[in-house]
Amino acid sequence: MGRLACATALLVLGGCGEAGDVLLEPTDFKRQAPDFEHPDLSGETVRLADYRGKVVVLDFWATWCPPCVFQPAEFNHFLAENDDGQVVFLGIEIGGASVEEIREWSEEHDAVAEYPILVGADMDLASSYGAIGYPTLVVVDGEGRIDSTHEGLISLEQIREFVEPLLDGRS
């Protein structure tokens, strides 16, 4: 029983496993996404409010999270398919890694993001979006409301399912 409890805790807290582990479907009641302000890897300040009118996909992750290494490739692929500027991805490192540590981790794991990575955030910010495990993806609609949340690995197809209806004006 001890092994089962440990494995369950790792799945919930670590986000390990196949795409689609924990999916929180879009809800009828959409709450306003908490605003934040953090620097990106180049030191530029990024605020969620600056992207009002666009769909924003937030990826809460950490360098100590083994499954998090797989997500940048999926997100990069989606952005390459949707390069019209309607969708913004923001990677938010919540583990306290420095800019240099994030760059080294990205290169070492072939997980270089082609979208902004924010530093200086923590688990409190992730918790304010309902994240309890990592990676956690949160989709914010053009009006700044949380549309959907996904914990664990997410596939390109699932990203499309969450984001494309918002681009078609069906939010």
- Largest sheet composition: 6 strands, mixed
Look at the structure and name the CATH superfamily: Glutaredoxin
Shape: globular
Please give the radius of gyration in angstroms.
Answer: 15 Å
Derived structural class: alpha/beta
Task: Tell me the strand order in the biggest sheet.
Answer: 1-8-7-4-5-6
- Reading the helices and strands in chain order gives HEEEEHEHEHEEH
Per DSSP E runs of 2 or more residues, the count of β-strands stands at 8
Distance between the termini: 44 Å
Describe this structure in words.
It is a single chain. The chain is an alpha/beta fold and 171 residues long. It has a single domain (2-167), classed as 3-Layer(aba) Sandwich (Glutaredoxin), CATH 3.40.30.10. Helix content is 30%, strand content 21%. It has helices at residues 2-14, 71-81, 99-108, 123-128, 156-167, and strands at 22-24, 37-39, 45-47, 55-61, 87-93, 117-118, 136-140, 146-151. Strands 1-8-7-4-5-6 form a six-stranded mixed beta sheet, with helices on one face. The chain has a two-stranded antiparallel sheet with strand order 2-3. The longest helix has 13 residues, at 2-14. The protein is globular, with a radius of gyration of 15 Å. The N and C termini lie far apart (44 Å).
